[in-house]
Amino acid sequence: MRRMVARFGGPAAVGCRLLAFGFWTKGLMHNSRMTAIQASSPSAAAGPLAILSALPDEQRGLIELLQSPRLERHAGREFWRGSLHGQTVVLALSRIGKVSATLTAAVLVERFGVRAIVFTGVAGGLAPGARVGDVVVAHEFMQHDMDASPIFPRHEVPAYGRSRFACDAELSERLALAAGRGLAQAFGSAQIHRGLIASGDRFVSSAAESSALQLALRQTGHEALAVEMEGAAVAQVCADYGIAFAAMRAISDRADDDAHQDFSTFVRQVASRYALLIVGEFLRQGHAA
Predict the structure, then answer these.
(1) For all residues of the chain together, what is the average pLDDT?
(2) Active-site annotation holder among 134, 168, 253, 256
(3) Is 156 a catalytic residue?
(4) Is 253 a catalytic residue?
């Protein structure tokens, strides 16, 4: 605040600017809600389902199963159209980080007219019960590195009046059911968890950092099960466009001092098997419905 006073010329001037900023953000919140309403249309409802992952190994094998595959390149990215287990889909990689994920999600909506986005990938476990090999199906996402305080509460996204973005309840229920059935075939000891996942542009890779992150989240009323780097961005894009979003993350590591080794091994050896089992079960459910 002292920097703001020095820059803008006194407490009164700062107060006026903060008040104006408040009116501006309320306007943005209204416009954001209008955008979501306008984006929901019959054409979007009839579009393909997007299956999104951050890394190639998280999606390996799905492209090979596509019927009538067609590759399209846009914005420096590859998008695979086709049919999978009887459903029209678009497969894509978000790449790593929130900015890359935001762009990919927006392209999926704007260019491909997807009706929903399902994210499959890996995450670091934060909650004590989220063990390596378990799966977290998200209820909500938040950005753990969002901090526009003191103008807004820590973790709140400016212009939205909230810090969490909810996943679609029906789609998430189907994904959790598919995860349970899929993992029972080959990974019987894996547990399915449902709750909050935190996203941020940092790979959490030490026990000290993990503990500090959990403490910071608890101080603002958040108990996250896992941490990753893309989901909250995709959830926000889907909220803006008014399309359904669901995400599942396999726990690849405990976001501790061994995270970098555990992560690499899990992604290379296990992640694609999870995706094949769970996504396959999920799509078969939808086709049967």
Answers:
(1) 85
(2) 253
(3) no
(4) yes
